[in-house]
Amino acid sequence: MNKSSLKHLPTSTKSSGERSISASAAKLRLLKRLRCTLRYEKRAWESGATMVAGVDEVGRGSLFGPVVAAAVILDPAYRVRGLRDSKLLLPERREVLEKRILEHVIAWSVAAVDAACIDQINIYHASKLAMRNAVLMLAPAADYLLVDALRLDCDLPQKAIIHGDALSASIAAASILAKVERDRMMRDWDTVFPEYGLASHKGYSAPKHIAALQKYGPTPLHRQSFAPVWQNPVPQEVFDFMEEDNPTLPAILESSR
Fold this sequence. Notes:
Number of strands: 7
CATH superfamily of the largest domain: Ribonuclease H-like superfamily/Ribonuclease H
CATH class of the largest domain: Alpha Beta
Largest sheet: 5 strands, mixed
Radius of gyration: 19 Å
Oligomer: single chain
Helix content: 40-55%
Shape: globular
Distance between the termini: 40 Å
Order of helices and strands: HEEHHEEHEHHEEHHHHHHH
Mean pLDDT: 87
Strand content: 5-15%
């Protein structure tokens, strides 16, 4: 089963003797069965590549803030144990692994594309842009890419791997770095916009978040092109520091209403 087939799963699935489960639960069950190894990295090394980077992003489905990507070049001489898809790890475990990854990799980088850009070019292209930017920031540079599900717009040889963050150690490492960094951003923004509960749901469509949107409307950092956001167009204050960082922000917000 791959990602495209999961899109066509019914709302619930049932086999003989089993309770019906949602598509998201079925996907989670699948991911837990997959083994995260170095087999893709070894194939790349055997082909002559020396700087094999895993690339992944987080935050595509969030209603708030940036999409964040990371790129990681693992050291073939050191195995970081416990790597797996960041969605399957508890927050505390992700932070332990983040420290271990940063101590032992050859190179790593994190890049983000903000909500205003997401609204301008759509989340698919913004995700690819964030991943591409993360790759270009690597020092030393990568000579081969392992990418979760997508092909990036660059000249480097690369392999797109469905469920790559659950199968490739390099992509899993990138997933963990991106997730930990984005979660930190959400905790920071929670102090600015405490009504929305960003620290708990990280900007996703949790009931508390939807209720806050209905009551207060979106902040300037919400993704104005996402339906749950534009369906609740209560005007919000634009802070001076936001206008300084992005002079086009007021116009973008006005056109989205």
